[in-house]
C-alpha cells in the first residue's frame, strides 16, 4: 500500500545529505535536519490518523510525516541467532526463548514492555565457549556482505546520509547475560566477559573490513544501552579498561575512511562514561533521554564542538501539551543555531502524547528551525 504523506517536506536549498553533514560538522546549513526517533507500538493502534492511513511501523511514519531521509546499514551480531520458540503459555503470558537465547516471560498480546528475563543460556565460561563456537564464527556464510546489492540500494549519488553500524561492544553482551548476569560475571568470570567484548569487536571489524572500502559512508552508528538513570550498569573502570580499547580499534578503521561522526544509542545517565566514549571515538549521543541524564545543552556546553547530540526533546514535556512543548522548544533554539544538534523526541514517542499535540510539536519545530 502506497503511503501518502500528510505534510509537505520542509523547504530547503540543500540535499538531506549535505544538510546532515554540515549540521553535524558545525558548518552552515540551510535549515535543521528534520527527523524523529519513532513511536511506541501502542501509538499505531491509538492514534486515529495512523489507523486511518494504515501506518503500522516507524518506517511508515517517517514517510507519512515526510521527514528527511537518513539510513544506516549493518551486519549480524550472532550468526545464526538462537531459534526463537514458545516454551509454555498461560491466559495472558508466554514463556519464550528469544533470539539471544534468553528464557523470558512476555505478554501474550505482545504490547510494548520490557520482558521479564528468567534465565540466560550463558552462566559459565563453558556455556560461553559453546555459544561462541555456534553463533560467532566469522566463517559463517551469513557474514559475507552482498556489496553489489548494497551499492544498488545506496548509490554514490544518493541525496541522503548513510551510516555504517558499528554494533555494540558491551550492550549486546548485557543482553546475552542479562543485567544481573553481567553484574555477577564481571566479578566471577572477568576473562569470559572480556572475551565476549573482544568477540563483539571482531565481529564488527570483520563487517567493516568488507564495506568501508566499497561505500562512501557519512557517519557511523552504534547501540549500547549500558546506562540507566543512576549511571552505567558496569563500573567505570571496567568500561575504560575493557570497552574503550575496542572502541579505539573501531575508530581507527572509521578515521582511515574519513568517517568522523560516530553516535551511540545509549539511554540513561551517560555522564560517568562520557570521557571514555569520546576517548574511544564516539562523539555523538542519540536519542539522549533528558530525564535519565540532563538537558542536552549541559553536555554541549561542557564538551563544546567535540560533541554532537541527536534527540533530547523531553517526552515528558511533550505529553503536557502545547504550552509546555513551546517552552521546552525555546530552550533548544541556541543549540540548533550553533550546529551539532538535531532535536527530536528523546526516544520513542509514548502513547500518552495526544496526536494533535504531536502535530503542534512538528509544526512548531518547522516554524522555529525550518527556512524562515
Question: What features would you describe in this structure?
Answer:
The structure is a single chain. The chain has 372 residues and is α/β, with parallel strands linked by helices. The chain folds into two domains: 16-77 and 120-369, TIM Barrel, CATH 3.20.20; 83-119, no CATH class. It contains 15 helices and 13 strands. It has a four-stranded antiparallel β-sheet with strand order 2-3-4-5, with no helix packed on it. A hairpin with a 5-residue loop joins strand 3 and strand 4 (103-107). Helix 8 (179-188) packs across helix 9 (190-211). The protein is globular and about 60 Å long. The chain starts with 15 loop residues before the first helix and ends with a helix.
Number of strands: 13
User: What class, by secondary structure content?
Assistant: alpha/beta
Distance between the termini: 34 Å
CATH architecture of the largest domain: Alpha-Beta Barrel
**Alpha plus pi helix count:** 15
Instruction: Name the helix and strand elements from N-terminus to C-terminus, one letter apiece.
Output: HHHHEEEEEHHEHHHEEEHEHEHEHHEH
Strand order of the largest sheet: 2-3-4-5
Helical percent range? 40-55%
Shape: globular
In angstroms, what is the radius of gyration?
21 Å
What is the CATH C-level name of the largest domain? Alpha Beta
What is the typical, i.e. mean, pLDDT?
96
| Domain count | 2
Sheet bearing the most strands, described? 4 strands, antiparallel
Q: Would you tell me which CATH topology of the largest domain applies? A: TIM Barrel
Taken as a percent bin, the fraction of beta residues is: 5-15%
Uncertain stretches of 5 or more adjacent residues? none
Amino acid at each position: 500500500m502506497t503511503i501518502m504523506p500528510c505534510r509537505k517536506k520542509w523547504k530547503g536549498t540543500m540535499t538531506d545529505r549535505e544538510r546532515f553533514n554540515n549540521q553535524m560538522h558545525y558548518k552552515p546549513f540551510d535549515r535543521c535536519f528534520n527527523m524523529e526517533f519513532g513511536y511506541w507500538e501502542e501509538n499505531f493502534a491509538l492514534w486515529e490518523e495512523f489507523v486511518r492511513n494504515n501506518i503500522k511501523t516507524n518506517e511508515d511514519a517517517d514517510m507519512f510525516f515526510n521527514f528527511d531521509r537518513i539510513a544506516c546499514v549493518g551486519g549480524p551480531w550472532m550468526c545464526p541467532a538462537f531459534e526463537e520458540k514458545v516454551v509454555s503459555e498461560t491466559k495472558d503470558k508466554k514463556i519464550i526463548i528469544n533470539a539471544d537465547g534468553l528464557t523470558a516471560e512476555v505478554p501474550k498480546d505482545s504490547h510494548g514492555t520490557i520482558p521479564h528475563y528468567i534465565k540466560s543460556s550463558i552462566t559459565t565460561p563453558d556455556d560461553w565457549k559453546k555459544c561462541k563456537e555456534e553463533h560467532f564464527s566469522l566463517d559463517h556464510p551469513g557474514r559475507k556482505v552482498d556489496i553489489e546489492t548494497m551499492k544498488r540500494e545506496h548509490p554514490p549519488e544518493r541525496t541522503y546520509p548513510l551510516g555504517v553500524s558499528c554494533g555494540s561492544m558491551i550492550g549486546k553482551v548485557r543482553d546475552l547475560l542479562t543485567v544481573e548476569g553481567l553484574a555477577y560475571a564481571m566479578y566471577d568470570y572477568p576473562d569470559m566477559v572480556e572475551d565476549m567484548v573482544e568477540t563483539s569487536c571482531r565481529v564488527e571489524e570483520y563487517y567493516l573490513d568488507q564495506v568501508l572500502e566499497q561505500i562512501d559512508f557519512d557517519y557511523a552508528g552504534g547501540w549500547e544501552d549500558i546506562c540507566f538513570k543512576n549511571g552505567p550498569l558496569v563500573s567505570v573502570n571496567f568500561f575504560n579498561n575493557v570497552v574503550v580499547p575496542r572502541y579505539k580499534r573501531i575508530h581507527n578503521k572509521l578515521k582511515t575512511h574519513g568517517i568522523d561522526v560516530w553516535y551511540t544509542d545509549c539511554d540513561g545517565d551517560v555522564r560517568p562514561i562520557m570521557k571514555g566514549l569520546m576517548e574511544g571515538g564516539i562523539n555523538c549521543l542519540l536519542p539522549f533521554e533528558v530525564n535519565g541524564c540532563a538537558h542536552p545543552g549541559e553536555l554541549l556546553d561542557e564538551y563544546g564542538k567535540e560533541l554532537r547530540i541527536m534527540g533530547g526533546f523531553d517526552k515528558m514535556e511533550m505529553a503536557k501539551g502545547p504550552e509546555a512543548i513551546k517552552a521546552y522548544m525555546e530552550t533548544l533554539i541556541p543549540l540548533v543555531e550553533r550546529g551539532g544538534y538535531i532535536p527530536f523526541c528523546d526516544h520513542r514517542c509514548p502513547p500518552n502524547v495526544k496526536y494533535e499535540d504531536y502535530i503542534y510539536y512538528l509544526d512548531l519545530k518547522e516554524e522555529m528551525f525550518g527556512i524562515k
